[in-house]
């Protein structure tokens, strides 16, 4: 049984005010923990309409690279009369690949503003529009002989990807009842993971990864965007956004009842309204209830700068950025990149090694399918610690094995085991948890800014790995995995000391645990 079941009250911390004792609502909330039509519909629509296309654009670009580079070289010569050397062409291709990551960084930075100004639901719509526009650019770039259109498409889908990872998990967790918050929160992670695999499959030479059809490979995901945006007009807006940020209380209650389903109890609705009131910032409290001189009700958002300079938000912000950045610096992309050569070392042909690498990606996706169950049954802290620690262990093992792989015959097979176990433990914690942990550590006001900073850390670290990994691999060889292993060790230590348990707890119980910066004692229940 969750320890929070025995708590009768918790402390709501507000800077500059006396702590407020609030009742524990977990027991009653759990009675309403069920999958309703609109929860499922929204989860599926956002996952296949935005998260899967985001992963798709990560995985689709590698297989047809030689054909796209050849087309770029010929098109630039025909358009500008410029002849690229092999080095120039590789540099240009690096720009084509990395501009997607730059778009992700910029999209993440804009996520906070978009989520507050447009709302969670319309943020999702903007993601879909950008993805559709990028797909159109991909489809017609070859027909129009326009390398610029290819670059624009990569940048635009990068913007959509950054916006997706910073807003979609927040949208889903704000819709979810307390008991399903983690299960619904991992939908975005599952979508990105699945999208990478789908992109790898569609871009195979046996499908669309050919000289004549690569543009279809790049734009294929648009079918998903169009299909899964069909229910968009009927999707609910986040009740918490409407209540806390926009102050449209009647609309918030209506959406709350709609999301909760026709069998929702009035008691549950009242408890949720009380909970949303407690999530209001102190400034919002004064505006909502009056301070003796005013009873205004105006929107209240938190800018990124106000969140960065708020000492009570320092620790949760560090945790969110460390988890999202650490997710990329944990070496998952490096392992997949290196695994092809490892599969070849055990006697597989180049083609078979690529299919084996695709199989490893399918294992990653297979484990991801169990994420909702894991999030519902196990504590976040436990999963994150086990995942980080075991990833560090198997990265150290992989370093040792690859270094001596030519000296010990069976080390080739041991390296495959190490890779598969690394992927397994990565996906139970480091893969899904960083996507939604910000929604569990921050109240509604600062949440968009925090999620944007976390997404920025993720895409920024992804860019760093993409730029440096090949160089480091050539210089360090097997020891290229050591920085990733050390990152996992550092992350394990940070989480061991400072990450509070969030499963089954309302935000009013979590905020006080991390409100004192690095002096916080998050393992001590208030």
UniProtKB/TrEMBL annotation:
Organism lineage string: Eukaryota, Metazoa, Ecdysozoa, Arthropoda, Hexapoda
PANTHER family linked: FI08437P-RELATED, SOLUTE CARRIER FAMILY 2
Protein species of origin: Anopheles minimus
InterPro entries: GLUT, MFS_dom, MFS_sugar_transport-like, MFS_trans_sf, Sugar/inositol_transpt, Sugar_transporter_CS
SUPFAM superfamilies recorded: MFS general substrate transporter
Positions of the Major facilitator superfamily (MFS) profile domain: 43-503
Keyword terms of this UniProt record: Glycoprotein, Membrane, Transmembrane, Transmembrane helix, Transport
Name of the protein this chain belongs to: Major facilitator superfamily (MFS) profile domain-containing protein
Compartment(s) of residence: Membrane
Record keyword Transmembrane helix present: yes
Predominant location category: membrane
TM segment ranges: 92-115, 124-145, 151-172, 184-202, 214-235, 304-325, 355-375, 382-405, 411-437, 449-469, 475-499
GO cellular component, one term: membrane
Family per similarity comment: Belongs to the major facilitator superfamily. Sugar transporter (TC 2.A.1.1) family.
GO MF entries: hexose transmembrane transporter activity
Membrane topology note: Multi-pass membrane protein
Listed Pfam families: Sugar_tr (PF00083)
């Amino acid at each position: 049984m969750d320890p929070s079941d025995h708590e009768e009250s918790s402390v709501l911390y507000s800077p500059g005010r006396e702590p407020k004792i609030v009742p524990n609502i977990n027991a009653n909330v759990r009675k309403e923990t069920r999958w309703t039509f609109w929860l499922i519909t929204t989860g599926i629509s956002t996952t296949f309409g935005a998260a899967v296309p985001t992963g798709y654009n990560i995985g689709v670009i590698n297989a047809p690279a030689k054909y796209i580079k050849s087309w770029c070289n010929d098109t630039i010569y025909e358009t500008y009369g410029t002849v690229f050397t092999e080095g120039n062409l590789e540099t240009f291709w690096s720009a084509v690949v990395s501009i997607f990551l730059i778009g992700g960084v910029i999209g993440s930075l804009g996520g906070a503003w978009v989520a507050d100004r447009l709302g969670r639901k319309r943020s999702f719509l903007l993601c879909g529009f950008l993805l559709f526009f990028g797909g159109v650019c991909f489809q017609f770039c070859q027909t129009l002989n326009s390398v610029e259109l290819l670059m624009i498409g990569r940048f635009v889908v990068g913007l959509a990807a950054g916006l997706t990872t910073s807003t979609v998990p927040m949208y889903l967790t704000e819709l979810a009842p307390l008991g399903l918050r983690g299960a619904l929160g991992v939908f975005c992670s599952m979508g990105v993971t699945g999208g990478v695999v789908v992109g790898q499959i569609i871009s195979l030479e046996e499908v669309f990864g050919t000289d004549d059809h690569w543009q279809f490979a790049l734009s294929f995901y648009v079918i998903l965007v169009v299909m899964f945006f069909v229910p968009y007009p009927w999707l609910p807006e986040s009740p918490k956004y409407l209540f806390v940020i926009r102050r449209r209380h009647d609309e918030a209650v209506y959406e709350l009842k709609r999301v909760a389903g026709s069998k929702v109890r009035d008691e549950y609705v009242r408890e949720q309204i009380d909970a949303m009131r407690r999530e209001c910032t102190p400034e919002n409290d004064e505006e909502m209830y009056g301070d003796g001189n005013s009873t205004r009700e105006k929107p209240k958002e938190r800018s990124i700068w106000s969140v960065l300079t708020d000492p009570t938000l320092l620790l949760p912000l560090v945790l969110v950025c460390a988890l999202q950045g650490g997710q990329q610096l944990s070496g998952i992309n490096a392992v997949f990149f290196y695994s092809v050569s490892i599969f070849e070392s055990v006697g597989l042909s180049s083609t078979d090694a690529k299919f084996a690498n695709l199989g490893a990606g399918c294992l990653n996706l297979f484990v991801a399918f169990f994420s909702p169950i894991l999030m519902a049954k196990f504590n976040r802290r436990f999963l994150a610690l086990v995942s980080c620690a075991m990833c560090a262990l198997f990265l150290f093992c992989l370093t040792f094995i690859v270094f001596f792989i030519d000296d010990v015959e069976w080390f080739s097979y041991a390296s495959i085991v190490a890779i598969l176990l690394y992927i397994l433990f990565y996906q139970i914690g480091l893969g899904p948890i960083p996507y939604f942990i910000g929604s569990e550590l921050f109240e509604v006001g600062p949440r968009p800014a925090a999620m944007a900073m976390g997404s920025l850390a993720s895409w920024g670290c992804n860019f760093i790995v993409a730029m440096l990994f090949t160089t480091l691999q050539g210089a360090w060889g097997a020891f290229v995995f050591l920085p990733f292993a050390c990152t996992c060790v550092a992350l394990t230590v940070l989480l061991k000391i400072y990450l509070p348990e969030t499963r089954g707890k309302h935000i009013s119980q979590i905020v006080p645990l991390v409100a004192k910066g690095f002096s916080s004692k998050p393992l001590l229940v208030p």
